[in-house]
């Protein structure tokens, strides 16, 4: 019996998706709930599983095609056995033209002794997006299966001087190779990021105010309790939970910073949904911590840890990426000393954290060395005055330099 596989209902505000990767060809067997195709939207990659076990009879759209909800993607013959030879899936004219120049298939290099593919669909998508040859990655999973952690470890180890292919790209061996170009289309996520950043610059009056924070008290508090904290909650005590909770205290004092502009109206929010910018292989994403004022430090740390792992795996859901009233971006993890973060529309402010550096500080008339971080608050001057922005940042500074204020609500 033939079973149709259609585009699932897309999340609210998403009108279409792009066919990113087919994981089966016509004639290949597929198990029930096994991923058949990846669909890329503006924020996430959706996996479309097969509703039945059987054989893929036909693929109705090619990779790169734009599809809408309920559009027919493929046909699966339920319960059928896979025949010997198989036909190729739909291929775009560009891929046909380039087929002669493609490298030999790597399936044999990524298959175990039974002929099963070592690459899972999620890993296959990741190595494709990062343009990695999976034969260079040593799998640590069962039967040599390549895990997502193996791909991330491989990326961490690579540099422009370590990879011969990258060295060849930046140091051509002859004059003919000296001026090469490679044109790569933006992913939908990257295109959406570009669109939103441009929208923010065009539609908001963005200003940035700066301050510095002495983190010695927070670091001392963390050092005293981090072991007990981790033992009690099974999660490390980092600095993000301090800054997230400090931001909530500041937002309570200055609610306009937690507001947004809608036409000629200012929309005030009586809840605190904090976005935390996270880097992923596909680009910057901002998952949302909801109702942070009701969360403990441990819950904040655990949720941020979960978001970081999901971002690496590309498994963040639309719900986790939607909404938010305020954003925190930590450029310090990449070594940034100072920056001017850009708004995440329709939000009206964003806090930029930076690296922690030992700097000379005057205390009680004496120069001492303290761990200092520069902070930046970018805000929409249409609704937030400079006085409010400065005092907001001062409140965060006070909370971080005396963490007991957050516990006492002062």
Structure notes:
It is a single chain. The chain has 410 residues and is α+β, with helices and mostly antiparallel strands. The chain has three domains: 1-102, OB fold (Dihydrolipoamide Acetyltransferase, E2P); 110-185, E3-binding domain (Dihydrolipoamide Transferase); 188-408, 2-Layer Sandwich (Chloramphenicol Acetyltransferase). It contains eleven helices and 19 strands. Strand 18 and strand 19 form a beta hairpin. The longest helix has 18 residues, at 216-233. The relative contact order is 0.11.
List keywords for this structure.
OB fold (Dihydrolipoamide Acetyltransferase, E2P); four-stranded antiparallel beta sheet; Chloramphenicol Acetyltransferase; Dihydrolipoamide Transferase; 11 helices; 19 strands; alpha+beta; 3 domains; seven-stranded mixed beta sheet; 410 residues
């Amino acid at each position: 019996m033939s079973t149709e596989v259609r585009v699932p209902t897309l999340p609210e505000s998403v009108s279409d998706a792009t066919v990113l990767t087919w994981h089966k060809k016509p004639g290949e067997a597929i198990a029930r709930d096994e991923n058949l195709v990846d669909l890329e939207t503006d924020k996430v990659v959706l996996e479309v599983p097969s509703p039945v076990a059987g054989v893929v009879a036909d693929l109705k759209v090619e990779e790169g095609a734009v599809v809408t909800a309920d559009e027919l993607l493929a046909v699966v013959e339920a319960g059928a056995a896979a025949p010997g030879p198989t036909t190729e899936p739909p291929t775009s004219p560009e891929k046909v033209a380039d087929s002669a120049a493609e490298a030999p298939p790597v399936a044999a290099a990524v298959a175990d002794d039974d002929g099963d593919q070592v690459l899972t669909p999620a890993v296959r998508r990741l190595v494709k997006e990062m343009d990695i040859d999976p034969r260079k990655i040593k799998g640590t999973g069962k039967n040599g299966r390549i895990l997502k952690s193996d791909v991330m470890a491989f990326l961490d180890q690579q540099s422009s001087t370590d990879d011969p292919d990258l060295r060849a790209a930046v140091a051509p061996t002859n004059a003919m190779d000296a001026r090469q170009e490679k044109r790569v289309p933006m992913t939908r996520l990257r295109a959406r990021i570009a669109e939103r950043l441009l929208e923010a610059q065009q539609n908001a009056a963005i200003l940035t105010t700066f301050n510095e924070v002495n983190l010695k008290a927070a670091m001392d508090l963390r050092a005293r309790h981090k072991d007990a904290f981790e033992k009690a909650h099974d999660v490390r005590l980092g600095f993000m939970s301090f800054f997230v909770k400090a931001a909530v205290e500041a937002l309570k004092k200055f609610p306009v910073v937690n507001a947004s502009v809608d036409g000629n109206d200012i929309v005030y929010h009586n809840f605190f949904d904090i976005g935390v910018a996270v880097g992923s292989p596909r680009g910057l994403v901002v998952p949302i911590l909801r109702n942070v004022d009701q969360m403990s430090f441990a819950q904040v740390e655990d949720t941020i840890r979960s978001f970081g792992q999901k971002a690496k795996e590309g498994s963040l859901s639309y719900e986790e990426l939607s909404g938010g009233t305020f954003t925190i971006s930590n450029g310090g993890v990449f070594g940034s000393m100072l920056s001017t973060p850009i708004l995440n529309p329709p939000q009206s402010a964003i806090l930029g954290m930076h690296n922690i550096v030992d700097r000379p500080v005057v205390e009680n008339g004496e120069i001492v060395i303290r761990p200092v971080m520069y902070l930046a608050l970018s805000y929409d001057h249409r609704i937030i005055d400079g006085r409010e922005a400065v005092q907001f940042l001062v409140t965060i500074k006070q909370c971080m330099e005396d963490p007991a204020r957050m516990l006492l609500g002062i």
